[in-house]
Protein 1
Amino acid sequence: MFRGYRFEHPRDETVIAIGGWSYLWAGLFGAFYVWRLGFGRLFLRALAINLLYGATFVGFFFGTLTFIRSALPWYGLQAVAIPVVILLQGTTMLRMIRDGYRRRGWLVRQG
């Protein structure tokens, strides 16, 4: 599920490895994680995706709050929804990073 990637520069043999913890950092920090790895051009697209995930979560949050009167199931839904949103956002951000390295001509290996 949490595939790691190795990015190898074709000329100078620089290797950058991204592992399982990167999914958490990309899920928590989203567009800023993409920018930190050197993909400033993808920052606005990543930020738009972050806002979309945030709006979806807020909609889900208030939607469940409206329809569920009991607090116990509502907290259970939120306990599941928060990690799911972090996971989805992290996966999306790492996919953007992977594609960015491919466009730059780097070799991408799973590992």
Protein 2
Amino acid sequence: MSEMARSSRDHAVLRDRFEAWLAGRLPTGAEPQVTSLASTDTNGMSSETLLVTAAWTEDGAPREERLVTRMAPDPADVPVFPSYDLDRQYEVIRLVGELTDVPVPRVWWSEPDPGPLGAPFFVMGHVDGRVPPDVMPYTFGDNWLHDADPGDQRCLQDASVDVLARLHAIDRPEERFGFLTPDAPGDTPLARRVATARAWYDWAAAAGFPSPLIERVFAWLEAHWPAEEGATVLSWGDSRIGNVLYDGFAPVAVLDWEMATLGPRELDVGWLIYAHRIFDDIAGVMGLPGMPHFMRADDVAATYEAATGHTLRDLEFYGTLAAVQYGIVFLRTGARSVHFGEVGPPAEVDNLLHNRGPLERMLAGSYWT
């Protein structure tokens, strides 16, 4: 859970190429200069995120902008997902910004051509704020969220749940976000979402990392399918506080939309709950107290239901669905660590799963009680 390699790209080369690309995007005479370009390494293990400072001339006056570039990873660097549709992510952020008051960054440009930087990318504005860290996990202590007053922690929790309520209130989501419909078999949005996750796992397994435990969890999901899926909403997909920038304890930018889809509202609520629980589980393994009072399932559900008027169902199923997808992420990041020589090949593939114990307890029926 410490610092892990994500990319083999040369930032000096990327800086020069981004500067040349920017010159073609801005008006003649802008003469842009990229004064800094760096990666971020505290959160996110999928798309490559570059923090860029650029200066140019606009209407005869100097202008400087801090930008964030999200680009697809190099296929040689063991990406988390089999494919990356950066233009789709750009469009989701743009529409959420237009249709809601959910805070999202300003989107500047989308570049689907891999030529300029070596991979498709999009550019958005930089937003000042702070994020609960992934490395080391915020549940380990010695960071702003863990050390905050419990009342402030609860304010952040409730404000984060409210983000989901506002996203799920978008009307006609299947019309407005039809491009998010998964290209996967299934008669319902949930069936297509689970089929997408299964195809993702099959791809990871075919690369030499088959997990018997993950396959057992998928079988459990089939055997415990919800009787009623409920209405279809815009699902953020990766709904966790590590993908939010906060000013104090209030969200100022909702980030990371690469898993956005259409489906039941419980997809996001279950993910929000488990995305904290996984870090709390790891803290417990390390002998740390963690934050068991934070993001409790009953508290999150009560806040969401009060904000929306909708009763949540089958959160055990949706939490387990979130957990198995975290397991697939761990398979891929583990394979990446093997690729970069940070660890040796595991004796058992399931040992790559940082949530192996919790997944086994879910199958035994003892985790969510």
Protein 3
Amino acid sequence: MEYIYASMLLHSARKPITEESIKNILKAADIEADDIKVKALVAALKEVNIDDIIKSATLSVAAPVVTQATTEATTRVEEKKEEKEEKKEEVEETMAEGLGALFG
């Protein structure tokens, strides 16, 4: 995971993602770099448009968050409606009791 983070850091800094730069970042974090993993990562990232991956990942993560927020908001609205209905019923009962006392 730290190899990916190192490459993301380089990408966000607009620096070239090279074996040497990834090793330097890992060394700065006191992580011993595995040469094979570093070479494989650099080779794999040469074929990838990182900006496109970030955009697609952002969209796929945002959809469930929006859905959850909408569900929570709907639940709160329904709860408030129920509370209003309960209060209305209480008022009607109180009014009925008052009329009963007048004619009772």
Protein 4
Amino acid sequence: MVNVIIYLKKEHNSIEFVKFLLTEKLVASASIDENNVSYKLLDGKLYEDVYTVITAQTKSLLFNEIVKLVEERIGDEIPIISSPIVASNRIFDDNIKSKTIAI
């Protein structure tokens, strides 16, 4: 199990994309964090980016399929990462298993 974290620019429709991922049973649940401010330093200059961040819970084997769909529907310049869910209780585990496609 993993958390898939997708960084979208404001012009992308995060709610519609989450609905699509849920409908296709690629994720079990998701949250949307709007106005997430990210900073980076390039050539000594500080840059600020504002993202809408989707954090979705799913099976690790579905990560590549999610990346493929993001690239097809939104573009290939979208930052996407995953982090493992190391431990969870039975309710959380059952939720991911029952609400995502069988692998």
